[in-house]
């Protein structure tokens, strides 16, 4: 990690910092290594780079789409060592669902900015903290804040924390999200357990697994049928029943679009025709990454808004992030109970 500070800045040998994020104050901004090397060209055309090899490597990592296994291992070691425990269950909190991490006890909290090589959260409702601790007897790690494609991160970077979870020892991924309900039977506040997905970004030729495959994570061509663990879905349905929320629970198909725009009516109609029940801008690339490295996956969507497939002039039928956040806040208690009880079941079985 030589040359890095906690914000992912790269220190040059004269003590200045080159910031890897576009909102940084450094005059160098987040220009790629090639640009920086250009500045150091001498008259005879030979590159005289003032960065050490470690610094150049760090800069490349910040600008690259893929994270080498060794870098992910370093991040995982940092977390496991800092937390003093090895988690078994990983939780990704959806928009407005950060309270899923607040129920973790004896929590060790890592701000994303202080984790070496970690991206930073830029979306409201995504705090940007990694929380490791105990939940219902199990050791869990929760991401209070996920990374979305529309934030400008490549998909491999968006789902890189799933690989970090894997190398921390996580066997189960719980991915949660806020989503628009396309299925006309869904009401705002319902929970849809994901049993499949339609990967719209994949249709457009984009995948978190693009680029060279590292077999230490998984195979070049992973199969995705049965990605969503049936036992966990059934357990969650039982839990929902005992919570008295079975009529607000569904099992369905999620689709991820790139965002940040919400969908047009024509897009919603097309998604419905394809069998999609709920739509959002996340989760699918995390599930792909988790299945690639053989994690068991449980995922659900909290339906924060209804997506009408009819044309209308009514402003209140338009999706907006404030509504998404406020519905999530109102339903956080039920979501927390569902997650906690499922964690308890998994822990009891192990
Ligand atoms: O999927 P999560 O992170 O829950 O967030 C959802 O809410 C935001 C839109 O309101 C989008 O980021 C969408 O993906
Ligand atoms: O309607 C939606 N569309 C896309 N993403 C979303 N996230 C919450 N609601 C929505």
Automatic annotation (TrEMBL):
GO terms for biological process: nucleoside metabolic process. It comes from Drosophila guanche (Fruit fly). The lineage of its organism: Eukaryota, Metazoa, Ecdysozoa, Arthropoda, Hexapoda. Pathway: Purine metabolism; purine nucleoside salvage. Residues 13-29 have a biased composition (Low complexity). Residues 38-48 have a biased composition (Polar residues). One of its GO terms (cellular component) is cytoplasm. This is Purine nucleoside phosphorylase. It holds the Pfam family PNP_UDP_1. Belongs to the PNP/MTAP phosphorylase family.
